[in-house]
Amino acid sequence: MRNKQLKAFDTVALEGSFSEAAIRLGITQPAVTYQVRTLEQEYGCLLFVRGATGVKLTEEGHKLLKITRRLFTAEEEAKEFLDATEQVATGNLRIAADAPQFVLDLLENFVPNYPKVQISIGFGNSREVVKELLEKRVDVIVTGNPALDDRLAVVPFHSHPLCAVLPINHVNANQKMIDIRTLPTERFLLREKISTTRMEVEGYFKEINFTPSSVLELGGREATKEAVAKEFGIGFMFEREAEGDARIKAIPLAESTVKSVNSVVCLKNQLHRPVIRELFETATKMSI
User: Fold this and answer.
1) What is the per-residue DSSP string for 121-162?
2) CA dist list (Å): 118 to 85, 102, 115, 146
3) I need a labelling partner for 158 at 20 to 30 A (CA). Which of 16, 33, 126, 220 fits?
4) How far is residue 87's CA from residue 25's CA, in Å, rounded to a whole number?
5) Which residue ranges form the domains of the chain, and what is each CATH number?
6) Is the pLDDT of residue 288 over 70?
C-alpha cells in the first residue's frame, strides 16, 4: 500500500467520480483507476460500487474513508502550519507602544523564536498609538488599559500598580507604601491632561479626597523622570515605567487599586496574519 493509492481512493470518494478525481489530482483517469484497483486487489476488498451515474462507497469503503480523512486532514494541517511558520519567519511587523518596557518584554519572548521578522517600533501616548492602529499606520500596538472597541482584538499580558515617584534621597523614599495625604506641602508633577496616567491619578485623588496645593504639569514620561530626579516634586507612574533610573524610586500608593494592564492590540480583521497570531500567542503565554 502506498500513499498515492490512499490519496486516489480518498479523492474518488470525496468527488464521487473517477474523472473528477483525476482532474483534482492532476493525473489521467486511467491512472486513478489503476491506483484504486491496485489497492483493492492487494487487500482483496471492494471499496466502490461502480455505476453509470458514478461510484458509491461500500461498507469497507466508508470505514477506510474515515481513516483516510484523518490522515489527509492531518497532512493538510501540517502543511498549513509549515506555510504559516514560513510566513511568520519572513514577515514584517510595525508596532507602536506607549512605553518601551512592555513592548520590549513582549519582544524578548517573541524575537528568539522568529529572528528574521523585520520589526519597527514607534512610541507615543496611549491615544496616539490607538489612532495609529485605527488608521492602519501600524499593525499592532502595546498599550496600557486600552479602550473597549469592537474593532480591536486585545490580549493582556502584564499589570502593575500606580506609584508615587520620589527622588532617591527623599525622606520617604524607603517607605514600602506612601500616603500622599501626609505630604500636603509637596509639589506634585502631573502628566499632560490627555494622558491616561493623568486621568488615573486624578481619579485616585478623588477617591481619597485629596487636592494638591501645588502642581507642575509636564508633557511626557521622560520629562517627569527628570523633574523628579532634580527634586521639582513627586511624580506618578506605573511601577515598571520608573525602572532603570537609579535617581528615582517608585513607591505604591496607599489605598490605591489603580493598575495598568498592558495589552497587545490589533484590528480584528488582521488576526489572520501569521506573524500577528504568533505575537498574540506569545502574549497569551506571558499572561499565564
Assistant:
1) EEE--HHHHHHHHHTTS-SEEEEESPPP-TTEEEEEEEEEEE
2) 15, 19, 8, 25
3) 220
4) 26
5) 3-77 (1.10.10.10), 92-157+261-287 (3.40.190.10), 159-260 (3.40.190.290)
6) no
Distances in Å between the alpha carbon of 37 and those of 6, 13, 40, 45, 191?
11, 14, 5, 10, 78
Whether 197 and 186 have beta carbons less than 8 Å apart is answered as: no
Residue 186 burial class via C-beta count within 10 angstroms: exposed 0-12, middle 13-18, buried 19 and up: middle
Q: To which residue does cell 474518488 refer?
A: 12
Residue 30: DSSP 8-state: H
Residue 115, judged by CB atoms within 10 A of its CB (0-12, 13-18, 19+), counts as exposed
Angle between helices 3-15 and 18-25 (to 10 degrees): 120
- Mean pLDDT in the chain? 91
User: Does the CA dihedral 281-285-286-288 come out positive or negative?
Assistant: positive
What amino acid is encoded at 281 in this protein?
Answer: E
For the ranges 9-23, 53-67, 83-97, 195-209, the lowest mean pLDDT is seen at: 83-97
pTM above threshold 0.70: no
pLDDT for 104 equals: 93
Per DSSP, the three-state class of 93 is strand
Please list the residues that pair with 214 across neighbouring strands.
Answer: 187
